[in-house]
Amino acid sequence: MSQLRREIVKILSRKLTYFGWAGLLVVPVLVSLAVRFSTHRSGPPGMEETGGGFNFDIASASGLYIAIGSIIALSLFLLPMLAAVSGSLTLAGEAEKGTLRTMLMQPVRRGSVLAAKWLAANLYVAVGLLILLASSLIAGGAFFGLKPIFLVNLDTLSTAGVGEGIGLILLAYLFAFVAMAAAVSLALLFSTLTDSGLTAMAGAMVLIIIMLVLGNISALGFLRPYFFTSHVLASFNFFRDPIAWEPIRDALLNFAVWIAGTTGVAWLIFRRKDIRS
Amino acid sequence: MTASIHNPAPRGQGLGDSDPVVLSTHGLTKDFKKLRAVDGLDLTVYRGDVFGFLGPNGAGKSTTIRLIFGLLYPTSGYVEVLGSQVPRDRQKALRHIGGFVDDPTFYGNMTARRNLRLIGSMNGEVSEERITEVLEMVDLAERGDSKVGGYSHGMRQRLGIALALLHRPELIILDEPTSGLDPQGMKDVRELIRALGRTGTTVFLSSHLLHEVELVCNRAAILRKGRMIAQGPVSQLRPASNAVKVLTDNQRVAQEVLRRLAPDGKVTQDQGYLVLEAAEDLVPEMVRRLVSQQIGVRAVIPAHEEGLEEMFLELTAREDAQGEGQPS
Questions:
Q1: Residue spans per domain, chain A
Q2: A180 CA to chain B: closest CA distance, Å?
Q3: Residue B293 DSSP SS3
Q4: Most buried residue, A88, B32, B232, B315, by CB count within 10 Å?
Q5: Closest residue to B121, CB basis, from A6, A14, A101
Q6: Cβ partners under 8 Å of residue B238, min gap 6
Q7: CB–CB of B296/B249 below 8 Å?
Q8: Which of A3, A9, A99 sits opposite B105 (nearest CB)?
Q9: Using a CB-CB distance cutoff of 8 angstroms, which residues of chain B are in contact with residue A6?
Q10: Which sign, positive or negative, has the C-alpha torsion A116, A122, A125, A129?
Q11: What is the mean pLDDT of residues B238-259?
Q12: CA–CA min distance A19, chain B (Å)
């Protein structure tokens, strides 16, 4: 049994895993119901950025908008929270229960333990994103039908067919996965600093919230490009015609630096850490 | 609990310095900020030893075990397990060790069997038959499919022993294995440790229960405030006593017989017993002579037998006195 497989077995044995996934399953259904029974109807057809959010009123035009709206809306809070929970339970959660000690008394490399835990935490998020995608497409399709979507184009009215629209949505979800890998890595770093899963999770969440708040203060605008949270909504650029690759590239580069930096520091700490729990 | 152990590897008897060294520590030291938890420890455990690691709470026993398992990094010094140094070759060394430190911990939301499968697989393949076998050894076979979260402390201790035995390691390290067990459980675990010793498996038993070490160990080390104050065969650690108490159906005549037998020895009386201070090898001759004089021998027992407990208290008191005498 590989280390990764063992970590997956552990994740699947936790009730918390299924609560997180259930949340992602339910959100698109609730959003679809809310839009379906909402009396308000939006004016112009097409998508609008609403201060970092998503105008769900247009969702009635195509079920695909539920998938787009879900990923954009959840990328700022629920998904980072799930990523933080997943990352923080890796080491600190096990240290708290004492099972980290039991595990490290076996002939395994600490590096492979850390790598397997990082991969498993990201797999958890990936499965969550797949559930969100499937649920939103099914709910959106059931309530509003899967129809072409309007793309953001300042000059002309531009649309994407259902196939192209789903392709763009897949790219947006993949982008969100990379963004959440940065959150997982940050939580993993906190997980090496404490023997309490809750403390690690709170630490990661507080830092994410601080980045979100500071990123919205105009006087501190010079810091904004460095926070990975400032780039999470760059997935919206997939729905421009043509796709705005530059902000997407900048965002992916930022995520890569955060992932490599935090995971690297986590490794440096964990490889020589005294296991006292 | 079944005390039969299957261990095919040929082993020595662990009787002395001629046996290969399985575990040794070399100037092992561990500081936690200003606290020196382990101080220049030099331990030697030979193949086949059932080695007692004695010390009061807070002496540094668990810290030493954590250093052996590579959970802690030493401030200086190192551990050597069958030629592999810890922490440098930690992974290699751990292939030869099974055991636990403090309370054994498991995944509470999984069954005992699944825990053994999951954790055991980190040290190579584990067959279901072997899992069943070790669960039977610790009397948990019937509860093997129950979730560990519902286990009592004693059951977790026994599951910890099962995990330690799973891969038939050459060295088993048990930290207070009888803690939390009922008297029968304690007896079973001690019998299991003795049985392991008989098969040649080296056992490193950490305990603060002196009589436990006396009961099951052939060698021991005593730790006090992180420093080793004694190490050697238990029989040598325990101060020898030459006195025996004798109870017969005719104490007056028996006293004369004993005086004639050992003219240099002292014969006194203590609570109805005759106490003979003489060499231990005189005892068979003493019994023979008493019987030949038609004196019925009711009891012959060691007198003033000093156990490890007295010796431990004496050594630690001496250490304390030395500590107080030194300028702080």
A1: 2-272
A2: 27
A3: coil
A4: A88
A5: A6
A6: B214, B306, B307, B308, B311
A7: yes
A8: A99
A9: 118, 121-122
A10: negative
A11: 82
A12: 16
Here the ipTM equals 0.84
CB contact at 8 A, B162 and B140: yes
Interfacial residues of B (vs A; Cβ cutoff 8 Å):
66, 69-73, 90-95, 97, 99-110, 118-119, 121-123, 163
Q: In whole angstroms, what is the distance from residue B108 CA to residue B112 CA? A: 9
Q: Chain B contacts of A97, Cβ < 8 Å?
A: 105, 107-108
CB A42 within 8 A of CB A151: no
- Gap from A199 CA to chain B (nearest CA, Å): 21
* Per-residue confidence (pLDDT) for residue B272, from 0 to 100: 82
Residue written as token pair 């947006």: A172
A3 contacts on B by Cβ (under 8 Å): 122
Check A13 against B109: CB less than 8 A apart: yes
Average of per-residue pLDDT across A164-190:
96
B65 and B84 in contact (C-beta within 8 Å)? no
Q: Which tokens in the block code for residue A82?
A: 């799930």
Q: How far apart are CA B164 and CA A190, in angstroms?
A: 31
Question: Please, which pLDDT band fits residue B273 given cuts at 50, 70 and 90?
Answer: confident
B63: closest chain A residue by CA: A276
- Min mean pLDDT across A228-232, B149-153, B186-190, B239-243 is at B239-243
Contact check, Cβ <8 Å, A107/B71: no
The token pair that represents B10 in the structure block: 């040929």
Task: Please state, in angstroms and rounded to a whole number, the distance separating the CA atoms of residues B209 and B304.
Answer: 21
SS3 content of chain A, % helix, strand, coil (to 5): 75, 5, 20
The residue among A38 and A143 whose pLDDT is bigger is A143
